[in-house]
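G., the chain you wanted modeled:
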Amino acid sequence: MHAGKAGVFFAMGGNFLSATPDTLYTAEALRRCRLTVHVSTKLNRSHLVHGEEALILPCLGRSDRDTVNGEDQFVSCENSMGVVQSSKGVLTPVSDQLLSEPVIICRLAKATLGSRAQGTKN
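Predicted structure as tokens:
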């Protein structure tokens, strides 16, 4: 990104800018992108440093109930001991328009690949 060879930055959750060891260098790199996209549960500092165009796609948090076609979904989480376990949200989402990260990615892939996506029903 810093060299101008990457035009798009796409982040899933977290605070990318603040998590990097050299935030000033990373900020310069992000500003050189044509597009920066953040899929996030809440606003953070990374959203303030962006490319020419920027999108923030709000999504469900792991504590939000995620119901798809009448079935409750679950997410996987890793605890501080490295144990991965399933977790179901119990809170009512703040909007019925919010989607989970996997649904956002699947819809982006389907919109990008169209009929070239394996297993896609048109």
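The longest strand covers residues 35-40.

Shout if anything looks off.
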